[in-house]
Amino acid sequence: MRLQVSAATDVGQVRNVNEDGSLVDEPLGLIAVADGVGGHRAGEVASATALEALRAALRSGRSLREAIEEANEAVFTKSLSDEEFRGMGTTLTAGTMAAGGTFIVGHVGDSRAYLLRDGEFRQLTTDHSRVQELVDDGRLTADEAAVHPMRNVITRALGMDATVDVDIYPIQLEPGDRVLFCSDGLTGMLRDDLVGAELRRDADLSRVAARLVDAANSAGGEDNITVVVASVTAEEAPRVEAPLVVPVAEPVRDEPDTIYDEPRRPRGRTRRVGRVLVWVIPVLLILGIAVGAIAWYARNNYYVGAHRGRVTVYQGVPGGLLVWDPTIDRRTNLSLSDLRPVDAADVRAERTFSSRDDADAYVRRIRSRAPNPPGTTTTTTIPTTTTTTLPVTTTAPPLFPPPPESTPVPGP
Ligand code: MN
Question: Is-above-0.85 flag for pTM?
């Protein structure tokens, strides 16, 4: 069983300090999220202290429960050492990979662990919070709890006392599973179904992590946001010693931040057929990916240039790339002579953009700077009903006239 991991954190839209912490330790097979609380920067100190102590204890062979108890002692001791740290604490949700694909989750506080399996997304941990108690008693629904004014009040944290009660959840992982650890800055802003949808949406874990953080920020970002996402794959296929002749440079891919796995099994014997396919298939794959990447690049760029004296948005790259020629995306009614000379020169130089929106925004900018923009018509509307006033409405011209037929463009 193999775990790929990607992590992301952000201070959010409201706070000045990020008091969340996360930890990914390959050799230990460890992932963790901690959300510190305390005055000034004490919360930051609490989460960092807990994560460091957790790692040290696991390194010296402690079980996950013992390691979290030691992390608690470390935060508690530190909180007594300095007036500034008085009363500080932290949540901690940590998972370690054990033999045979068993994943052990240890948990204190209201950070969370989730599991996505066969499309079903569910919370593994139970929050140690006041609203969770009310939900358990049937006095609040989960939806009411999500917006309850006491939703930030936690009932258990590291550093509050010399001892702590740790919840332990052993989970048998399966290939294809995805695991999410997060602070309440994510789940306080997004409903579970949205979080689950983001986790399902993309094969690339670093994009999943970034999108989750972005979504929480877009929803208000009222707290620090931290996510650690992991995906479980079957054991790596045995490696083959056939020489790999690669005629083209390998395309750049987004690699997951971290990959760790259990010790590999001894290699099996390789049959001759396998040996031939083993290098033919990668070569074809790499060629395919390279051609695909060029095609994608050639079509998914936009540039603004001139066509018959008019500012024109093209799809493609100037001059084309291999067999992919640029096409006119939209022609505007803006002439080069309408523009400031500096903008006209810029358009002649064919500025490129990575999206149509960016290209459109650029056209709007140079139009707004133009000393003499064309086609600004003022329409006076006289209502048919009897009235004493004549309302005057100004209709802005459409940015672009109707698109022409999408013809390939001959070179300039
Ligand atoms: Mn928080």
Answer: no
The token pair at 352 is: 């490129």
pLDDT digits (tens, 9 = 90+) for 209-242: 999 999 999 999 999 999 999 999 886 544 444 4
Q: 2-283 — its CATH code? A: 3.60.40.10
Tell me how far apart the alpha carbons of residues 196 and 188 are, in angstroms, rounded to a whole number: 14
**H or E segment to which residue 178 belongs:** strand 178-182
Burial of 154 (0-12, 13-18, 19+ CB in 10 A): buried
The CA distance from 168 to 108, in Å, is 9
Residue 173 CA to ligand 1 centre (angstroms):
27
| pLDDT given for residue 410 in this prediction | 54
Ligand 1 center–CA 199 separation, angstroms: 20
Element of type H or E holding 45: helix 42-59
Greatest alpha-carbon span in the chain? 94
Q: Where exactly are the structural domains of the chain?
A: 2-283, 301-408
